[in-house]
Amino acid sequence: MNMIVAVDQNWGIGLRNKLLVQIPEDQRFFRETTTGKVVVMGRKTLESFPNKMPLPKRTNIVLSKDESYQVKGAIVVHSKEELLKELENYAKEDIFIIGGESVYKMMLPYCNVVHVTKIDYAYEADSFFPNLDALKEWKITASSDEQTYFDLEYTFYQYEKKI
Description:
- This protein is an alpha/beta fold.
- 19% of the residues lie in helices and 36% in strands.
- The model has no long low-confidence stretch (mean pLDDT 97).
């Protein structure tokens, strides 16, 4: 299983249910990487999307504790156990966890690859991704050259779990 995330210098990922910054090249990477795949997210992440609609050209799975929660065009599950059971229907390499904080933390032990866009700036944030650099079981296996978007510098990294 995979994760994909953009983080700031403090591994912040969001503020008030919005991304910290939108970088077109990062959004393109996200789109290209996840199109045709399975994306797993929490309800608040889905509700942060335009029109609160599932992402097109992907299988969307939404985790919500609310048993009555329904979303047109998405599979809704209500527990970690139900989510893991649903994910058995898909190839592990086609599954991408896309947020938010609680879903990332819950699913990190099940993932082998994390695609991280590291933004060289510290934003105000209220949600965070686990700091993979501080976790000994994770190592960087690929990185891009440093990119710039206006005055922001960022780099794409691939982390893999050590076996």
